Hints:
By secondary structure, this protein is an all-alpha fold. The chain has one domain (about 5-185). About 65% of the residues lie in helices and about 0% in strands. It has ten helices and no strands. It has helices spanning about 5-10, 15-20, 30, 35-55, 55-70, 75-85, 95-110, 120-130, 140-150, 160-185. Helix 5 packs across helix 6 (about 75-85). The protein is globular, with a radius of gyration of 16 Å.
Amino acid sequence: MNYLAHTLLSCHDPSLMLGNFLADMLSKAEADRLPDPFMAGVKLHKLIDSYTDSHPTVRESIRLLRPTQGKYSPVTIDILYDHILSVHWDGYSSEPLGQFRERVYGILLKNTELVPEKYRPVIMRMVEGDFLMSCSTEEKLIRTFDRVRARASFSNSFDKAHLDLRQHRQVLEEHFHIFFPDLTSHVENFCYCGDIDEE
Length: 199
């Protein structure tokens, strides 16, 4: 899963969210120096990734895109699933997406001093670029896949991923709606991801 899903599944806990968000950036040594509550977020990130990789419906989505996306099919599915989550957000959270986005950005900016200094400008750029919405429309998806394509080590078809979405949207959405509730239930063995209590 990509950033939107990872932050949503951080159980409304700022420490878990920060660790979950940082997990792919940090080296093991950097992660090991995080305070314990943030290390729990790193563990949550790995739990989400492991469950996603092993889920049979996710594997069906990957097989569906294998003819066009090849070995990068899992990467493409992670991004397309974030798009589907943004489109169907109200079915998975009672918190409006705009409010959620601002809350996440506030948590990240408030805690930048806990992040290794070299990553602080990266986080600032991501927030300024509204990274949680980077998959929300086809136009933004194209830009996101352009960035991923530029970083890829091997030849790829990321420039055609939005066309794959057009062709297979119905099936991919069906797959997502099977998978994501399962993932949410699995995460709730780690922490509670239900609605935030009204104050």
